[in-house]
Amino acid sequence: MPAITRHQLPNGLSIILKEQHSAPVVSWWMLYRIGSRNERTGQTGLSHWVEHMMFKGTPQFPGGVLDKMISREGGSWNAQTSMDYTAYYETMPADRIDLGLRLEADRMVNAIFDPEEVESERTVIISEREGSENSPMFWLDEEVRASMFRVHGYHHEIIGDMADLHTITRDDLYNHYRQFYRPNNAVAVAVGDFDTVSMLRRIEELYGGIPAGDPVTHFNRPEPEQFGERRVTVERPGATAFLEMAYRVPPAKHPDWFAMAMLNAILTGAGGAIDNKTSRLYRAIVESGLGVDVDGGLTPSIDPYLYDLIVTLREGTTHEQIESVLDEQLEQVAVAGVTTHELERARKQARAIFAYSTERVTGQASWLTIAETVADYTWFENYIERLSAVTAEDVQRAAQTYLRPQNRTVGWLIPTGGDDVEYDEDDAE
Q1: pLDDT given at position 403
Q2: Other C-beta atoms within 10 Å of 130: how many?
Q3: Burial track 235-245 (b if 16+ CB lie within 10 A, e otherwise)
Q4: Partners of residue 305 on adjacent β-strands
Q5: Is 249 left (phi over 0), alpha (psi -120 to 50) or beta?
Q6: What is the predicted pLDDT for the residue at 427?
C-alpha cells in the first residue's frame, strides 16, 4: 500500500496525503469535525442544513455555475453529513483538481447564506424529512435511538427534529458555519495521482492564510450508563411488522470494535455485495420462514454508539417469536462461542467488502477522512491487520460483554394496515 503522510498547517488544518498513480485521478476531501452529535435541543439538523447551503455558492463561485464548472472539467462532487462530521469532496482528473482545492478554500470562509435561499432550502429539507416519515422503519429507528440516548447528541436523527426545521433561522445556520468551518476544525485529504511535495505546497498557498480564530468548542454530553432493558412500541400504517434490537457498543477507537465487526459478520453477514445466506441469523430467521429479512449494523463512531439487529417479519410471525430466536442465537455465541471456520469465512467476507470499498481513490479518501475523525488515519491503514487479529475468544467475549438484555433497547413496529412505503436510508443524510 502506498505511503500515507500526515501534516498540519500552523492554523491547525490537518492534512493527509496518499499518492496513488494507478490512474490520472485525484479525490480531494474537506471534512469538518461537526455533526448531529454536537447539536443542542432546539437546533437539531443544523449541520445537515449548513451542508445544503454550502452548495449555494460564494461571490467567486456562484451556486448556479458550480455544477457546470465541475462537470466541464470531467469531475464529480458531493457531500455528506453524519453524526460525527460534515464532509465535502471533489474527484477529478489529476490535472484539474486545483479547482476542487480552490473551491473548498473559498467556501470555507465566503459562503453567502442568502435569506431567500435559506427559506427555499427549508422547504427542501422539510420535504426530505416528510419523505423519510413515509417509512414505518424511520419512526421505529428514531424511537429506538431516542430511548437509547437520552442525553447524548446521538439521540436525534441527522436530518433533525421537524419542530426545529420549522424554527431554525438564517442566523442560526450562519453562526454554526462561522463557528465550526475553520481550518483548526477541519481535516483535508487527497488521494490519487499527484506529487506530495507539490500538493502540500499548493494546499499551504490556498489554506495557510485562513485564520484559525478562537479554539473550537463542541457541545457534547456523555450518555450515562444504562441500568436495564428498555422497550419501545411504534404503531404506523403499513402491512409489514419489524423488530429492532439495539445494543450499546464501544466507539471505533476501542479494540472491541473490531471484535464486534467480526461478530456482526458471523451473525448477519459482512454487508455490501456479499451474500449473507451463510450467516447464523439468516439461517435461523429467513430460512426457517419466520422472517423476510435480517440485517445488522455497526457504525464507526467517536463516542459509544449502537449495534442493531433489524428483522422484517413474515406475515403470521409474532414479535415474541423473533425475539425468542434472537435471544437463543445470541446466547449460543456468548456461551459456546464461534467456530474457527465461521470466523475465517466472516473475515474473508469482511476483507472482500473492504477491498471493494477502497478500490477507487474516492473510497480510499473517504475511509481516510472518516478514520482520522473517529480515531486517526492509522485506523484505516491497519484495518485489515486489526480484523485479522480478532480471535474466536475475542468474539465470544464481545458477545458476553455487550449483547446482554440489560444493555439493549428493543423496538417493535406494529403495522396498522394499508400499503407499505419504500424508503431510501440515504434520504436521512
Answers
A1: 98
A2: 12
A3: ebebebbbbbb
A4: 249
A5: beta
A6: 37
pLDDT in tens, 122-154: 999 999 999 999 999 999 999 999 999 999 999
Question: Quick check: 202 and 98 in contact, CB under 8 A?
Answer: yes
Please give the DSSP secondary-structure letter assigned to residue 19: E
Cβ atoms of 361 and 100 within 8 Å: the answer is no
- Rg of the Cα atoms in the chain: 22
**DSSP strand pairing (408-415 vs 230-236):** parallel
Q: Going by DSSP bridges, is the β-strand pair 291-298/86-93 parallel, antiparallel, or unpaired?
A: unpaired
Triad 63, 202, 91: Cα angle to 5°? 50
| pLDDT tens track for 246-288 | 999 999 999 999 999 999 999 999 876 567 888 999 999 999 9
Q: Are 420 and 240 in contact (CB under 8 A)?
A: yes
User: Could you tell me which residues come within 8 angstroms of residue 67 by beta carbon, excluding any fewer than 6 positions away?
Assistant: none
- In order of 108, 156, 193, 200, 409, the CA distances from 145 in angstroms are 32, 7, 42, 41, 9
The gap from C-alpha 376 to its chain's centroid, in whole angstroms, comes to 16
CB count, 10 Å around CB of 280? 19
Chain-centroid distance, C-alpha 304: 14
Tell me the H-state helices in 375-413: 378-381, 383-389, 392-402
> Which residue type, as a one-letter code, is found at position 129?
R
Q: What is the pLDDT of residues 29-52, one digit of tens each?
A: 999 999 999 999 999 999 999 999
Are 2 and 19 within 8 A, CB to CB? yes
Could you tell me where the DSSP H helices lie in 301-339?
319-336
SS3 89: strand
Which domains are present in the chain?
4-207 (3.30.830.10), 230-428 (3.30.830.10)
- Residue bearing cell 404506523: 236
